[in-house]
Each structure stands twice: as structure tokens, then as C-alpha cells.
Sequence to fold (167 residues):
Amino acid sequence: MELGILDYIFLALILISSFRGAFRGLIQEVMSLAALFISLLLATVFYPDGTKWIQSRSSLDESATFISFICIFIAAYILFKLVQKAIVMMINESPLEGTDKLLGFFFGLLEGLLICFFIVYLIDFQDFIDLKGLSGKSYIMPYLERFLPALDKPASEVMNKISSGEL
Fold:
């Protein structure tokens, strides 16, 4: 069995994300993702109010929206990171630390696999650069490509919504 360049990239991504997950632990990994997504959600929901508040107190018109979004996102993100730090400190001082690290390893493994699936999907989906030469020499890519048909329908629905202006 001879591994291609993509196989080494996939294995490196999976190993790096697995060890990162094991080092950080499941709680920290999940809370980091949650902090990012919840902060984006809060900024998306509340930026109109922030824009009005900034415009009522300054002469900024167009840049007030951007400033409002960024300020709300940063404030929410910092708040969630402080909560995350407190929870992780409590977990690390408890007997659950080993379990947290083990589950973090498996979460990182899953995260690495998802990144590899995304790369395979992009290689198959895009037509700008011919990367089929790389994928032809890969030992791992055929196994990952087996799951791609499950993504075809959701991807085509998203593309239809983008082209129709719904999204």
C-alpha cells in the first residue's frame, strides 16, 4: 500500500485535530465552537439595535452597522470565553479530567474527519482547478467519497436557494 500526498494530508489533519482535542478536552472544544456560533448569532440578531444606538450618538452612517456587529460579536465572544475558562478550570480540578481529555480526543478525531470530508467534497465539487491527479493516487479518498452522494441533495438545494436569492 503506497500512500499519496492527499493521504498524508488527511492523516496529518486527523492526527493534529485528535491530539488538539485530547490536549484541550471535550468541554473546551465544544464550548469554543459554541462561543463562536452563539456570538455570531447574537451579533446577527442585535446589530440593528446597536446600529441605531451608534447612529443616535455619532455622525457615522454606513460604518455604524459594521461597528455594531463587530462590537456585539467581540463582547459576546469574550463573555463566553470567560465562562468557558471557569468551567474548564472546574473540570480540570475534578476527577473527570481524564474522561474529558479522552472524549476530547474522539471529538478531535471526528472534527478531523469532517475536515477531510469537506476537502474531498471541494475537490469533487469545484471545476476551477483539476485536482483529480491528486485524488487518483490517494488510498483514503475512495473511502471518504462513499459518503459524498448523501451531500449532493443538500448542496444542490443550497445552490438553488443562493441562485434564486432566497439565501
